[in-house]
Sequence to fold (493 residues):
Amino acid sequence: MINSSPVEAWDTATVIFTFAGSGGVHLWFWVMCILCIVPLFVSLKAENAVEKEHNGNN
Amino acid sequence: MSPEELYAATTRANLLNLEVYYYWATAIMILIHAGFLMYEMGASRVKHVLASGTKNILAFAFMIPTFFMFGWWIYLAMYNGFVPDFEAGAGGVPWSDSMGPNLADNATGVFWGAFTLFACTTASIMSGSVIERIRMASFIVLAVLLGSVVWILSAAWGWHYAGWMVTDWGYHDFGASGVVHMISGFFALGVLINLGPRVGKYNPDGSPNRIRGHSLPMTATGLMLIVVGFFGFLGACLIFPGTELSWSATQWANIYGQPTTLSAICFNTLMAVAGGIIGCYAMTRDPFWMMSGALCGVISAAAGLDLWYPGLAFVVAFAGGILGPWAAGIFERLGIDDAVGAVSVHGVCGIWGLLAVGIFMGGYPGPSEEIPAITFMGQFVGVIVMFLLGFIPGYAVSWIFHKMGILRASEPVQEAGMDKEINAVAYPEEIKSIH
Fold:
């Protein structure tokens, strides 16, 4: 279990999201960016296969 | 105006705002039902369309009076297990002063309404998985059992400030990954085992055939409506501040009493919708699953929507978007004909949602000193309880109906179309099913 809490007591808490104030925020931000890009390549690969198939038939 | 009078006026105004907030959240939640209606009808073949739609609407209609009869009482009284607290439940009996128009109670009606719509959602989740072969009367009884008994019992245990899973284990399930989605998904699994597959789903060698619904555009639009409805659903998971019923005078809180904001839910719900759609698209490139990915994403992130860093909510949802269709393929190969993938989308992604909180949310304190912090073990116990509480009643009651011969439509009726049982035709212009 990963300790990601910036909160020790609720009555004094302000920023409460996981990994707030630590490098974890940057890690998950960049993972998110990569996950946005990878599907584009997956899509492109499939589109290219369809293009090749149809151009080959012409 | 004295300070006391000012305080009383402010509190009164806040109470009216609370009433308005939950009233409109409930109205938006009805869009979930409208969305499931379109989703299921689109996923049905032409000869089954109206039977699927009628089934869905009747589940909605039967849920409302039965939740009035006993659902709300179960929530108030059964937080400690199977032995009711009659004193705590007194306000939920259907002849209580609170259970009707009462000028001294602005809250019970809107809370009851919101919980009733949660119950309708659970029934809709099961409804899609069993289309094209379940008989109407048996389905309605199963839907009522799920929405007005089983779901609300799970909510009393794990979605109630005094529920034993919260007080004993620190169970954290803000947006109901477990108490709504796991319960519904695994209840549906229990029913599907006894119900059996649609005629034509499997070949003699056991290999599955893909049965296409008659309108994927209708299904996709329905799923988008469900996403809209989820904003009402998840907004209603918050406790309004500044009233005598609130956790705080100045801040929103989750149902357990931990402070959060509506902004937190907005950030993370949108990121979860996007993560699920993109994850499912990357996994399948199938429009049906891409839209189901929105549900996979929200359900995967739901348990921690009040606390996720939005980037992490996206990642958790993306993983859910991969998990959902993958699990659906496994169930299909095991002979479970789940027409819309509800067991995977709601059940399996619900498991992931609870465990993701257990994995990534270590260290968050409980809502009070007496209540444990979030732990992996607390979330794991939640997974076990939600699985058993959902699966056992669904399997047991559908088994009884199966033995009585009232669960499944016969092969000739399925081939003629379930719409024969309700004497209706969806498309009088003779649009033909190709299957």
